[in-house]
C-alpha cells in the first residue's frame, strides 16, 4: 500500500482542563474523500486545525505524505483550508483573494493571474474577479474560498463545514459539485461536518467522532448499516434501539439491536403497538409506534398509497431478520 | 411632549458648546479693538497681524512638532500594546489594559506634577534637560490610549481568522502582517493617530509642567498673551486657527472609524 496522505498517531489536544481530542489514530488514503462526522464539541474541527497547523497537538504526531509535520507552522504545510466562514480577505478583490497563495509563494504575476482566472472558471465564477467579496452572495463566496484553496494545488484540501451557511437547495447542489471537483483534481479532501446526510452522500470513508475519539471509521454503507456503537447508530440516521426485555422478546436474544426506520413495514402481522405520532414530510411519512413489548420505533414509509395509519391506531410492525443489526457486532443472521 | 423637552435640552447644550466658539471666530474679524457687540466693522487686519507675529508662528511650529512626535510614539506603543492584549494570554493582561487607558482619565495637573518631578530627579541627572522632548513624552502618556483603543477594537472585530487563512495559503508571518494585518489596521491607525494629534495639539496643563525653557506651544502662547490688552485681537485669531486645526482631525477620525469598519466583517 502506498504512503497515506495523512497519518495521525496518538493525537491529543487539551485546552486547559478540557480534553478536546483524546487520542486519535487515523490514516487517510491519497485521493480519498474523507469525512469527519460528529456533533459540535466532538473534536473534529480541532483535529482539522491540527492537520492544518493552527493548533499544536498536546501529544502525538501529524504526518503528511509520510513526513512528520507536527512541529511545522501552517505556512510550511502543503495543505489548504476552506474555512467555515470562508475568511475571504475583505480588502482584496476576488481575483486577488484567489491568487494570494501564489503571490506569497512568488509565482510571477502573469502566471498567477492566469491560474487564478482558471480556478475561478473551474468554480463557475469567470468574470467575477474584479468584485469585492462583500458584493458576492454566500454561495459565490463559498466558491471563491474553494478556488483560493485549489489554485495552490495542495496535496490535501481541508474543508471545515464549508456548506453550513448555505441554504438547503444550494447545499445539495454544492455537495454534488464538490464531489465532482474532487474527482477531477484527484486530491485528498478532508471534510468536517455535523450533517450525516452530507457525510454519507459525498464520502469514500467516514470517521464518526464522539467526545474526542473516533467511534467508527468506514464506508458510508458500513457506518450506516453496521454501526459499531449505540452512539454511531443514533448519530448516523435514525435508529430504533432495542435493549433489555424488548430485545429479548422481539429478537429472541440478549444484546443491543437496531432496526432502521425504512426497513420496517406496517402490516397485518408482526409486533403489535400503538401509533403515537404521525409526521408527514412530503415524499415520506414518519410514524412513531409504541410497541407493546416496550420499545418505541420510528417507521418511515414512502407516500405511495393513501389511507395510512392514524394517530392512536393499533398497528403491527414487521421487519426482516437480516435488517436487525447487533450493535458492536455484525448483522444478526 | 418628551420629544420636545429632549430637543430643547439638546439645542441648549449645543448652544452653550458652539456659540462661544463661533464668537471667537467672529471676533477674529471684528474691526473693533474692544470687541463691541454686535460687530460693525469687518477686518482681516488681526489675521495679518497674527501671521506677522513671530511668537505665534514659533508656537504653532512647536505645537506641530510636539503633536507629530507624540503621535508617532502613540502609534508605535499603542499598536504594540493592543496586539499584546488582544492576541496573547499573559499574567496581568487586564491590568496592563487598565494602565494604558488610565492616563486619559488622570487629572492633567497630577500627570504634570508627576512628570515634572520625575524629570527633575531621574532624567535630568542623566543629562537630558527639559525641552521639546519632555513635552512629547508628556503628551504621549495620554495619546497612546487613542491609538490603543482604535487598534484594539479593530483587532477584536477582525479576529484571527484572516491571519490563519493567510498562513494557510503559505504566507510567512511577515507577509501576513504586510498584506493582511496592516491593511486591515490602516484606517484604525489613521483614526487613532489623528485623535492623538488633536489631543496633543490643544494640551496645556501637562505642557506647562514638562516644557523646557523657551518651549512654547500654541495653547501656552495663547494663555500667556490672553491678558495683554494689545495682543487680544491676535489671540482671537490664533484661537480660531486652533479650533479649525483640532476639529479637522477629529472629524476625519470619525469618518474613518465609522462606516468602513462595519463592512470589513462579512
Automatic annotation (TrEMBL), chain A:
Keyword ATP-binding: yes
Matching PROSITE patterns: ABC_TRANSPORTER_1, ABC_TRANSPORTER_2
Pfam families in UniProt: ABC_tran, TOBE_2
Domain ABC transporter intervals: 6-236
Record bears the keyword Nucleotide-binding: yes
Keywords: ATP-binding, Nucleotide-binding, Transport
InterPro entries: AAA+_ATPase, ABC_SmlMolc_Importer, ABC_transporter-like_ATP-bd, ABC_transporter-like_CS, Mo/tungstate-bd_C_term_dom, P-loop_NTPase, Transp-assoc_OB_typ2
GO molecular function, one term: ATP binding
Alphabetical list of SUPFAM superfamilies matching this protein: MOP-like, P-loop containing nucleoside triphosphate hydrolases
Gene3D superfamilies xrefs: P-loop containing nucleotide triphosphate hydrolases
PANTHER family cross-referenced by the UniProt entry: SPERMIDINE/PUTRESCINE IMPORT ATP-BINDING PROTEIN POTA, SPERMIDINE_PUTRESCINE IMPORT ATP-BINDING PROTEIN POTA
Record's protein name: ABC transporter ATP-binding protein
UniProtKB/TrEMBL annotation, chain B:
Protein name: ABC transporter permease
Domain of life of the source: Bacteria
Domain spans labelled ABC transmembrane type-1: 60-253
Keywords in alphabetical order: Cell membrane, Membrane, Transmembrane, Transmembrane helix, Transport
Taxonomic source organism: Paractinoplanes aksuensis
Membrane-traversing stretches: 9-29, 66-84, 96-115, 127-148, 188-212, 232-252
InterPro entries, sorted: Bact_Polyamine_Transport (IPR051789), MetI-like (IPR000515), MetI-like_sf (IPR035906)
Keyword Membrane: yes
Record-stated family: Belongs to the binding-protein-dependent transport system permease family. CysTW subfamily.
Bilayer topology annotation: Multi-pass membrane protein
CDD domains, A to Z: TM_PBP2
Amino acid at each position: 500500500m502506498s504512503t497515506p496522505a495523512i497519518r495521525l498517531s496518538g493525537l491529543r489536544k487539551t485546552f486547559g482542563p478540557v480534553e478536546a481530542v483524546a487520542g486519535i489514530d487515523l490514516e487517510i488514503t491519497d485521493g480519498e474523500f474523507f469525512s469527519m462526522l460528529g456533533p459540535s464539541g466532538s473534536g473534529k474541527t480541532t483535529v482539522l486545525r491540527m492537520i492544518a497547523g493552527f493548533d499544536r497537538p498536546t501529544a502525538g504526531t501529524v504526518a503528511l505524505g509520510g513526513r512528520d509535520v507536527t512541529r511545522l507552522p501552517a505556512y510550511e504545510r502543503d495543505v489548504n483550508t476552506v474555512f467555515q466562514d470562508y475568511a475571504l480577505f475583505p480588502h482584496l478583490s476576488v481575483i486577488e483573494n484567489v491568487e494570494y497563495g501564489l503571490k506569497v509563494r512568488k509565482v510571477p504575476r502573469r502566471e498567477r493571474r492566469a491560474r487564478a482566472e482558471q480556478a475561478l472558471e473551474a468554480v463557475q465564477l469567470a468574470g467575477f474577479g474584479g468584485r469585492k467579496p462583500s458584493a458576492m452572495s454566500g454561495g459565490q463566496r463559498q466558491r471563491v474560498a474553494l478556488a483560493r484553496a485549489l489554485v495552490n494545488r495542495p496535496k490535501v484540501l481541508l474543508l471545515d463545514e464549508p456548506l453550513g451557511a448555505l441554504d438547503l437547495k444550494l447545499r445539495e447542489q454544492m455537495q454534488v459539485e464538490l464531489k465532482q471537483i474532487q474527482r477531477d483534481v484527484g486530491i485528498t479532501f478532508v471534510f468536517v461536518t455535523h450533517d450525516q446526510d452530507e457525510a454519507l452522500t459525498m464520502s469514500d470513508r467516514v470517521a464518526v467522532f464522539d467526545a474526542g475519539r473516533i467511534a467508527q471509521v468506514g464506508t458510508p454503507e458500513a457506518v450506516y448499516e453496521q454501526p459499531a456503537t449505540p452512539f454511531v447508530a443514533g448519530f448516523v440516521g435514525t435508529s430504533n434501539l432495542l435493549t433489555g426485555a424488548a430485545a429479548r422478546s422481539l429478537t429472541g436474544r440478549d444484546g443491543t439491536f437496531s432496526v432502521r426506520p425504512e426497513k420496517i413495514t406496517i402490516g397485518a402481522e408482526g409486533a403489535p403497538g400503538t401509533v403515537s405520532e404521525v409526521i408527514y414530510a412530503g415524499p415520506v411519512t414518519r410514524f412513531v409506534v409504541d410497541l407493546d413489548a416496550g420499545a418505541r420505533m420510528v417507521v418511515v414509509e414512502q407516500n405511495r398509497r393513501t389511507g395510512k395509519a392514524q394517530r392512536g391506531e393499533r398497528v403491527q410492525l414487521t421487519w426482516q431478520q437480516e435488517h436487525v443489526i447487533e450493535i458492536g457486532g455484525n448483522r444478526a443472521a | 411632549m418628551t420629544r420636545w423637552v429632549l430637543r430643547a435640552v439638546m439645542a441648549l447644550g449645543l448652544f452653550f458648546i458652539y456659540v462661544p466658539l463661533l464668537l471667537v471666530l467672529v471676533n477674529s474679524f471684528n474691526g473693533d479693538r474692544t470687541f463691541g457687540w454686535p460687530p460693525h466693522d469687518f477686518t482681516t487686519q488681526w489675521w495679518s497681524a497674527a501671521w506677522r507675529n513671530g511668537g505665534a508662528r514659533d508656537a504653532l511650529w512647536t505645537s506641530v512638532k510636539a503633536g507629530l512626535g507624540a503621535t508617532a510614539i502613540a502609534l508605535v506603543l499603542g499598536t504594540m500594546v493592543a496586539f499584546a492584549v488582544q492576541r496573547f494570554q499573559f499574567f496581568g493582561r487586564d491590568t496592563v489594559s487598565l494602565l494604558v487607558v488610565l492616563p486619559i482619565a488622570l487629572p492633567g495637573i497630577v500627570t504634570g506634577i508627576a512628570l515634572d518631578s520625575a524629570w527633575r530627579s531621574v532624567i535630568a541627572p542623566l543629562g537630558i534637560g527639559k525641552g521639546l522632548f519632555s513635552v512629547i513624552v508628556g503628551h504621549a502618556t495620554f495619546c497612546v490610549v487613542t491609538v490603543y483603543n482604535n487598534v484594539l477594537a479593530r483587532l477584536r472585530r477582525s479576529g484571527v481568522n484572516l491571519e490563519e487563512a493567510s498562513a494557510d495559503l503559505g504566507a510567512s508571518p511577515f507577509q501576513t502582517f504586510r498584506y493582511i494585518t496592516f491593511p486591515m489596521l490602516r484606517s484604525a491607525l489613521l483614526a487613532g493617530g489623528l485623535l492623538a494629534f488633536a489631543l496633543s495639539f490643544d494640551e496645556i496643563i501637562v505642557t506647562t509642567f514638562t516644557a523646557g525653557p523657551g518651549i512654547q506651544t500654541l495653547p501656552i502662547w495663547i494663555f500667556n498673551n490672553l491678558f495683554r490688552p494689545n495682543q487680544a485681537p491676535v489671540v482671537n485669531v490664533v484661537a480660531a486657527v486652533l479650533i479649525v486645526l483640532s476639529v479637522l482631525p477629529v472629524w476625519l477620525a470619525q469618518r474613518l472609524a465609522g462606516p468602513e469598519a462595519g463592512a470589513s466583517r462579512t
